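Any chance you could type out a protein's amino acid sequence plus the matching backbone structure tokens because I've never seen that pairing?

——
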Amino acid sequence: MNPIGLMKFITSHPLNRAAPLQAVGRFARWQIASRLVGGPIYLPFVAGTGLMVSRGMTGATGNWYCGLHELDEMAFVLHALRPGDLFADIGANVGSYTVLAGGAVGADVLSVEPLPATFERLSANIRINGLEQRVEAHCCGLSDRAGKITFTVGLDTMNRVALPGENLATCEVPVMTLDDLCGDRRPVVLKIDVEGHEVPVLNGASKVLDSTAVKAVLIETNGSGERYGVVDDAIMSTLSNRGFTPCRYDWEARKIHPVTGGERNTIFMRDPQAMEATCRQAPRYSLVNGSV
């Protein structure tokens, strides 16, 4: 995102509406401090948690600028989970959702990040928040079968399964299925952010998805699978056929609205009415710029 677009995003973010100048101040302080320090900096996050952040981590810095970078989706995770629930963070990157669920809520977390360098940063954020006993982290990918897959490296949150013949830096990583990873465990909420590889991940999760213990699946539906010849309709049909309804979450009213098509991120819910009741009963969580 270019500087003008980033500034518009920050000042127009719903959590910054009441104090846009303070948001600009957080942006300016980060730009200065990150250049002076030159390495990871601890930034406050949600409800007493924090993230170790370095320059170029767009998702993590977005949390500092805006409280919650992906507002509706992150607020949903905070409101839908309870202490002791199991949350699966597939494509964890440096751990924003892992820390939300494990640190702020007190849920147990299965955290999966395939790239070794990013996994080190994820592990650091697990340690800095004292979550070693609550988070089970795996340095691997997920797909429809066990094996190895080539991933891009150096693209921050946009790293993905590499296409044949691409002139990009890559590395080979082991993959397994979500069914094998979970065993007899069933996450209450799944977050899947795998930059277009969603359908193979879902195809390797038939036992998990067939369980009524799984209440919601938060998944990208932004067309990124088209580079692999897969359209978002395949995600919609896979989850709809298992009894999930595509929805969006209104964090402010704590209301759930069914949608007919995917948005950038779609939350598929097994029972939207029951999930709305759960979200309404959740406590509020403090942020750097307010609360949700």
Q: What stands out?
A: Residues 1-66 form one domain. Residues 73 and 249 are 7 Å apart (CA to CA).
